[in-house]
Design a protein that fits this description.
The complex is a heterotrimer.
Chain A lengths: L1 H50 L2 E4 L4 E4 L3 H7 L2 H32 L4 H11 L6 H12 L5 H8 L14 H13 L1 H13 L2 H9 L4 H12 L1 H16 L3 H6 L11 H10 L4 H27 L5
Antiparallel strand pairs in A: 1-2
Helix pairs in contact in A: 2-14, 3-7, 3-8, 3-11, 4-8, 8-11, 11-14, 13-14
Chain B lengths: L3 E10 L2 E11 L4 E5 L6 H9 L6 E6 L2 E2 L10 E4 L11 H11 L4 H15 L14 H14 L4 E5 L7 H18 L2 E6 L2 H7 L2 E6 L2 E6 L1 H6 L4 H6 L6 E11 L2 E6 L4 E7 L9 E4 L4 E3 L5 E10 L4 E7 L4 E6 L10 E6 L5 E3 L5 E2 L6
Helix pairs in contact in B: 2-3, 2-4, 3-4
Chain C lengths: L9 H28 L3 H4 L14 H9 L2 H32 L5 H10 L5 H14 L6 H5 L7 H12 L2 H9 L4 H12 L1 H17 L2 H6 L8 H9 L8 H34 L2
Helix pairs in contact in C: 1-14, 3-14, 4-8, 4-11, 4-13, 9-10, 11-14, 13-14
Classes of the chains: A mainly alpha, B alpha+beta, C mainly alpha.
Family (chain C): Belongs to the binding-protein-dependent transport system permease family.
Function (chain C): Part of the ABC transporter complex UgpBAEC involved in sn-glycerol-3-phosphate (G3P) import. Probably responsible for the translocation of the substrate across the membrane.
Subunit structure (chain C): The complex is composed of two ATP-binding proteins (UgpC), two transmembrane proteins (UgpA and UgpE) and a solute-binding protein (UgpB).
Chain lengths: 306, 362, 279
């Protein structure tokens, strides 16, 4: 019996070691990522906050603590305030278009035909192009006098519109490019949601002799209402970060009407080398994004049925 | 030597205790069935033996070896899962070989073991298919094959028949029994289906709410249920339970008075000193139709099954009664019938649910 | 192509034809650019309308291959995108599995901590990140272009939710088959996660290939430009450049490979996008 107990004890120790290993083995799996995450996300995030309270000139390399000075400056900087409003306007221009147009295209293409598949591929296609290719394409469309739009408007007797040089229209022109570029995302998300709607609901509705429009309003839309909200929130988050299109198409002009928040940060940080000032602007952008992300989390958490 | 010895097993998930001090001895080569309703802890018990859950208390031995601290793979067991858990990206052959490869078994031995298992289960022609190309029954065979190739000391089955259709289930029951005889290995089989338990087990472990209610061979569990729970859980149709209003003695035997005043004689000894029963139980086939019988019932539904007739009725106080009649029975809905339970089959149940058994007929 | 059910309601048919019309509008800019890229630059200076008539030429493309750094930029983009994709797949699969299936002290709290990272926009950390990389002397290197993307939690989140949805019994069966934790991951969980790997690979590759802001800041020497940045550099002085035909040939040259890749893998790309939204 004693030997048995002895064996058990030895085994117990070995098991305890195995237990210790299995307790921490999981941490070994996540450690590489955690190191990168801490180093490349969290540390910059924290040092960005600190930087926003500093006067930091990257060219001269000077830095000193200045409290809320950067934030106070931002609050009276007409260009920064303007960039917030431009970004908001841009979001208001694009997000409803993404939701409504994306939904309409998805509704029309939610069928198992080959033609629908081809068009799905087509609408999503521009999404794989980089922003610089997209702007290169659209620059020739918008080119003053000789571009496609101006050639058309001249032919119609309206004369050249030079949209990108027009303070009233430049941002809308950028929004149009953006919709062309990434309508595929909301379309696919809506299609995915539409395919989740059980077919028998439609069949039941047809047996109840509901008209197609009534089915759309009373069955389809309510069934995917969660996705509609989710798409709206996702697009708000994405479009708040608009940068490439405006930087390449208009450079923030004409008359600062298209300068976005990210573009402001980029220019403050990497053209004027005012890192502290740019970092402070980043924090304000981050705060806005946090609200939107919180909204997204809240929406995706909510059960589909009310 | 592959007896399985469970001593004082307890398991809690957080604050919820799902097993309370479970002790069961399963002999070498025995076919033990863990039987109980869903949520009774039978699957948890199986997973504790497999090492997929850790014990809160107690110990598990296989043969002379204590295994509850070992990794699942080192316990000398194989398990057939309810979902079969075949590796979907591997061929049947690779599924069977996986466990052996992991312990460095030489390739020729692996091939030999796979051939053996495939022959036993008649799955030779399936070896190069993927699991998704197999029917439910074939998958089930492969899952058993995967267990066989490891030549484990103990086989564990977690409701492996529940995903099969009725006909296949009946056939597979017979095959698993044959396999058990062929291999002579210890098998532990979890199910909620009493037919599986009755037909396959050499020992049934009836569980309820994390406790063992009774351990015994199938017929013993059927004939001498230790508790009201076991009596009610085993047997279809279910045992009848009649509430007892008052008890008295009649020649050394207990006599029960029912709510409607009817008196039932029993062969439960009053001298045994146990508590008096609050209920009497008898099985639907342990009763005679007799106009003078103590139980007066009114018939509600008659099921004619061909070889016999099942009659669903109730006492005047509403207590439901099911009894079995011969196949030519003329009984009809609305009939009033008298029943006389067999004297030696009437079982009493006391307030705690413990069974009071009658003396065996001489 | 568009075979229509005669039973179909007018409303549905109408919407279908409207979408066909809209899809043609979507194509126009692409064909416009393609056409321009085959036009001699001198002729285009009289007006872009000349695109509708001959002569056409391949000169723009041959100029492109002979004179520009486009080849180098494409190489940079390919190297950066592929290495980044492979590293993200490896790191996120391992970490996702750890969070999904392994028990260790503080797992829940750590996962929440990582999820918070989903809400951090890259723009919010780009200033300090730039300063960090200056100190480490990593700008104008492949490492400098790749590293910032390796800390993003999206992949971990994606893989963790996929691993969590795999049937647990498979891994339990493997444990009973004497497989170690690492072996279970490598031989069972990882092969079964291929659909999620494809999704993550597509997102990562697209993100790396199309990234604009970070390479714009980090790669300042033309030989380290990615394709995206290289093309951006050529179009800043759009009007005074070598000519619109030449620029459009660049656009085609840069965009076409992605479009072809997309057409080949469209099934996976569209499935990935649709699937990611379901989460």
């Amino acid at each position: 019996m004693t030997t048995l107990v002895g064996v058990d004890a030895a085994r117990g120790r070995r098991a305890a070691r195995a237990g210790w290993w299995s307790r921490w083995a999981g941490l070994a799996f996540v450690a590489p990522f955690l190191v990168l995450y801490l180093w490349l996300m969290i540390y910059p995030l924290v040092s960005g906050v600190i930087m926003s309270f500093q006067y930091k000139d990257l060219l001269s390399g000077t830095s000193e603590f200045v409290g809320f000075w950067n934030y106070e400056d931002l609050s009276i900087d007409p260009i920064f305030i303007g960039s917030i409003f431009n970004t908001l306007r841009f979001v208001i221009l694009t997000v409803p278009a993404f939701v409504v147009l994306g939904l309409l295209i998805a509704l029309a293409l939610n069928r198992p035909t080959r033609g629908a598949a081809i068009m799905r591929t087509l609408f999503f296609g521009p999404h794989v192009l980089s922003v610089t290719v997209v702007t290169l394409i659209w620059k020739t469309v918008y080119l003053p006098n000789v571009g496609m739009i101006d050639a058309g408007s001249t032919a119609l007797g309206l004369g050249p519109l030079s949209i990108l040089l027009n303070p009233d229209w430049a941002l809308a022109a950028v929004a149009l490019v953006t919709v062309w570029w990434s309508i595929g995302l909301p379309m696919m998300l809506f299609l995915a949601a539409l395919q989740q709607v059980p077919q028998d609901i439609y069949e039941a509705a047809r047996l109840d002799s509901a008209s197609p429009l009534r089915i759309l309003w009373t069955i389809t839309i309510p069934s995917i209402s969660k996705m509609i909200v989710l798409v709206a929130v996702i697009e708000v988050v994405l479009q708040f970060q608009v940068f490439g299109q405006v930087n390449l198409l208009t450079g923030g002009g004409p008359n600062n009407t298209t300068r976005s928040m990210v573009m402001f940060i980029y220019q403050a940080g990497f053209q004027q080398w005012q890192a502290g000032y740019a970092a402070a602007a980043s924090q304000i952008l981050f705060a806005i994004m946090l609200v939107a992300a919180g909204l997204q989390f809240w929406v995706s958490r909510k059960p589909a049925e009310s | 030597m592959a007896a399985v010895d469970l001593r004082g097993l307890s398991k809690a998930f957080g604050l919820v205790k799902v097993l309370h001090d479970v002790s069961v001895d399963i002999g070498d080569g025995e076919f033990a069935v863990l039987l109980g309703p869903s949520g009774c802890g039978k699957t948890t018990l199986l997973r504790l033996i497999a090492g997929l859950e850790t014990l809160s208390d107690g110990e598990i031995r296989i043969g002379d070896e204590r295994i509850d601290q070992l990794q699942p793979g080192q316990r000398g067991i194989a398990m057939v899962f309810q979902s079969y858990a075949l590796y979907p990206h591997m061929s049947v052959r690779a599924n069977l070989a996986y466990g052996l490869k992991n312990i460095g078994t030489p390739a020729n031995v692996i091939a030999q073991r796979i051939d053996q298992a495939a022959t036993i289960l008649e799955i030779e022609q399936l070896l190069d298919r993927k699991p998704h190309q197999l029917s439910g029954g074939q998958r089930q065979r492969v899952a058993i094959g995967r267990a066989i190739t490891k030549s484990p000391k103990v086989f564990l089955f977690d409701e492996p028949l529940s995903n099969l259709d009725a006909a296949l289930r009946a056939r597979t029951r017979v095959e698993i029994s044959k396999l058990h005889q062929q291999l002579g290995a210890t098998m532990i089989f979890v199910t909620h289906d009493q037919v599986e338990a009755m037909t396959m087990a050499s020992k049934i472990v009836v569980m309820n709410a994390g406790r063992v209610e009774q351990v015994g061979p199938p017929l013993e569990v059927y004939r001498h249920p230790a508790t009201r729970f076991v009596a009610a859980f085993i047997g279809t149709p279910q045992m009848n339970f009649v509430p007892v209003n008052q008890t008295s003695e009649n020649g050394g035997w207990l006599q029960a008075t029912l709510k409607d005043g009817a008196r039932l004689d029993t062969r439960i000894a009053t001298s045994a000193g146990h508590a008096s029963p609050v209920e009497l139980g008898f099985r639907p086939d342990e009763v005679a139709v007799d106009p003078d019988g103590a139980l007066k019932i009114e018939v509600e539904v008659v099921e004619r099954l061909g070889d016999r007739t099942l009659v669903y009725a109730h006492l005047s106080d509403g207590t439901p009664i099911i009894y079995q009649d011969h196949s030519d029975s003329q009984v009809q809905r609305g009939d009033r019938v008298g029943l006389r339970p067999h004297l030696h089959k009437l079982i009493g149940f006391d307030g705690s649910g413990k069974a009071l058994h009658p003396e065996l007929a001489a | 192509m568009a075979k229509l059910d005669p039973q179909e309601p007018v409303f549905s048919r109408l919407s279908y034809w409207l979408v066909i019309a809209l899809s043609l509008c979507w194509l126009i800019p692409l064909f416009w650019v393609l056409g321009l890229s085959f036009k001699p630059n001198e002729e285009l200076s009289y007006g872009l309308g000349t695109v509708f008539r001959a002569p056409y030429t391949l000169d723009n493309y041959s100029d492109l291959i002979r004179s520009s750094q486009l080849g180098r930029w494409i190489l940079n983009s390919v190297v950066v995108s592929i290495i980044q994709t492979v590293l993200v797949l490896i790191i996120c699969s391992i970490a996702g599995y750890g969070f999904a299936r392994l028990e260790f002290p503080g797992r829940r709290a750590l996962f929440v901590f990582v999820l918070i990272g989903l809400a951090i926009p890259r723009q919010a950390i780009i200033i300090p990140l730039h300063a960090m990389f200056v100190d480490l002397d990593l700008h104008n290197t492949y490492t400098g272009l790749i590293l910032p993307h390796l800390g993003t939690p999206f992949g971990v989140f994606l893989m963790a939710s996929y691993f969590r949805a795999l049937p647990r019994e498979l891994e339990e069966a493997a444990a009973l088959d004497n497989a170690s934790r690492w072996k279970i991951f490598l031989t069972i969980a990882l092969p079964l996660s291929v659909p999620a790997q494809i999704t993550l690979a597509i997102f990562t590759f697209l993100d790396a290939w199309n990234d604009y802001l970070w390479p714009l800041i980090s790669a300042t020497r033309p030989e380290m430009y990615t394709l995206t940045i290289g093309l951006a550099a050529t179009q800043t002085n759009f009007d005074q450049s070598e000519g619109i035909g030449y620029l459009m040939a660049q656009a085609v040259f840069a965009g076409l490979p992605m479009l072809i890749l997309y057409l080949i893998f469209q099934k996976y790309v569209l499935r990935a996008v649709a699937g990611a939204g379901g989460r």
